[in-house]
Amino acid sequence: MDRRGQARLVEGLAAIVILALGAAIACHSASYALSPQPRPTGLADRASSTLQQLLRTGLLEEAVYTGDLQTLKGELDGALLREGVGYRLEVYDSSWKLLACLESGFKPSAAYSAYAVVFGRDGSYPAEVRVVVLSVSG
Amino acid sequence: MPLMALIVSLALIALASGLPTLWRSHSLKHQPLHLHAGQYQALLRNCIAYSTQESWYSLRGGQSVPRVGLPESLANDYYDSAKQSLSNLPAKERYLNLTANPTWSYSLGRLLTERGDKAYFEGSLTLSPPDADVEVEATYRADLILIDASYDSDAGILRVWVRLIHNATDGGSYELWPIAELTAYTRTPGAWIEASYTVEPGTDGFYELAVDVGARPRQVLIKSVDELGVVLWFRLEPADWG
Lengths: 138, 242
Prior knowledge:
Chain A is built from 4 helices and 4 strands; from the N terminus they run H-H-H-H-E-E-E-E. By secondary structure, chain A is of the alpha+beta class. Chain A is elongated.
């Protein structure tokens, strides 16, 4: 093999190493989305049912409009974290500015989300829209 | 060749990094109907709370019943302000559809004469979520029910048993018994004045009141203000419950 042939071989090997590294990183990044295991669709239900429960009792509006999301921590820990489900709750205003956030044990790479639009608390007038996004991860 | 491999690898990594975000975005756009209904029910509850509060404050002198049409007008005012507020969100991110008009029914300040009669406020709404071809019917109702009453003319005490229930139906039905503060008033020629009374809270929304109305009792008004902001009230004639 001449020098040119050796150079091609080294280049080829380097390309294979780079591609292998890239594929490994990509697989790691998308480990959840590319997982051959069945997706935990229960997580999506968990996000929406937890949010709905907070809406029903008025606790969600109470926390959002007082700005004290810590009041939801006990409820979210009991409903989610105790069963190994991490969460992140975000509150946005109408211009999608993040106003507040509460997070515990959350893994962004494996998340399902549910949202709720709320308008006020205890009939406070005028209505001020807030979007609450609850993301959960297994 | 290594340069090409590097470019392909970076593209792969970028694509893979975006997949969780795509999943999250997908799950955000497809919400279950019960959660849609829950948001409408919470909005109706706010409309009812605002309307009943303002209806109570609108009473003058010895009035007990708000002006005809005022409660639904106030509830619609709140709904309109919610629509206005929602319109501040970018169109494609308005996850709720508030195009329909709610309907309201209520009984506030009426003289109750039978057990099981009630003061109430109900709102109903039928809408289609923006990303679904089905209709969501949401109803929210608050009831202050007269369970029983009894007037002891010797002691001059009117005992009243009531139950406060919030009820949401369709697309996820549920019942709540919010904690309430109850107040008893007696009528004087020009005003309702707070009576001397005690309240015993029970469980599941039950309350017992003992109102000192004297030996020649006037009408009594029972008002409930609950922790979700809803105000309900009715009147009783002690002599009817002797």
